Amino acid sequence: QVQLMESGGGFVQPGGSLSLSCAASGNIFSLNAMGWYRQAPGTQRELVAAITSGGTTTYADSVKGRFTISRDNAKNTVYLQMNSLKPEDTAVYYCNADIYDATRQIYWGQGTQVTVSS
Question: What local confidence, expressed as pLDDT, does residue 69 receive?
Fold first, then answer.
């Protein structure tokens, strides 16, 4: 059974940095695009950043220039480096992966809280 295990997150003051990581494990035949989404209270879940297996990246306009997504295909892990954090970045961050095991499915991590506040 495929699982996504997130780590990182926490509390930081505005202007600070945090990093997130998400490791996929289980019977993975192929790991395609991976990404990070976030959801703040009372809002819909939104894409933050995504990266293909070949390394092509996509970012939400609100995080361009501040966040960097990367991946280590050998470790089945995706990372999100978040710099110059703002209070509006406060949300639960979810890892997402397009994985082919027995069938092709989208998997989600359990979510990790990021709080930016003074």
Answer: 98
